[in-house]
Design brief:
Elements lengths: L1 H23 L18 H4 L4 H9 L4 E2 L3 E4 L3 E2 L5 E7 L4 E8 L6 E6 L7 E6 L5 E9 L2 E11 L7
Parallel strand pairs: 1-9, 3-9
Antiparallel strand pairs: 2-4, 4-7, 5-6, 5-8, 8-9
Length: 160
């Protein structure tokens, strides 16, 4: 009985120490959280029907194309109801990542605030109404960058 408690204590101590060491070394990053206050929610941007209007409402500027943004999205989505999209970037000082889908009823699909020190990587699944461009916007150092990939939707999606 004492040996079992001692082993459990040692395991917990080692696990806590390893987690603390990993966090201190920057191997564990802080998660991105959803807006918790109404003032943080970009309501006007989510109501826009086209990419340019949503981008202006969210950031107030136009984006410049960048090859430092990597977007992982299927070229052909067999089911438009569930399209996986992942974005990561090597740009410095990233504060925000947004995803827009051109052919959907509302252009802005998601907007993520990236806390300082967090790995600039987001992943989600979206409904796509029809074949269209998926645009990733990254705010880095006060400037807005983008990359675009076209996704062909074969069935499902927002349109049925």
């Amino acid at each position: 009985m004492i040996d079992e408690k001692r082993r459990l204590l040692l395991k917990c101590t080692l696990a806590t120490g390893a987690a603390g060491l990993a966090a201190g070394a920057g191997l564990i990053s802080a998660p991105a959280f959803a807006a918790t206050k109404p003032a943080q929610w970009p309501d006007d941007a989510f109501k826009q029907k086209n990419i340019d209007a949503a981008t202006q409402a969210l950031y107030g500027q136009t984006a410049v194309k960048s090859d430092k943004i990597e977007m992982n999205v299927p070229t052909i989505a067999e089911n438009g109801a569930v399209v996986p999209v992942a974005v990561k970037t090597s740009l410095p000082d990233v504060t925000s990542i947004a995803l827009m889908i051109e052919g959907n009823p509302y252009a802005l699909a998601a907007s993520f605030n990236i806390p300082q020190g967090t790995l600039p990587y987001v992943s989600n699944r979206f409904k796509m109404r029809k074949t269209s461009d998926v645009i990733a916007l990254v705010m880095s150092g006060g400037k807005l960058y983008s990359t675009t990939k076209n996704v062909k939707v074969t069935i499902g999606g927002c349109g049925g």
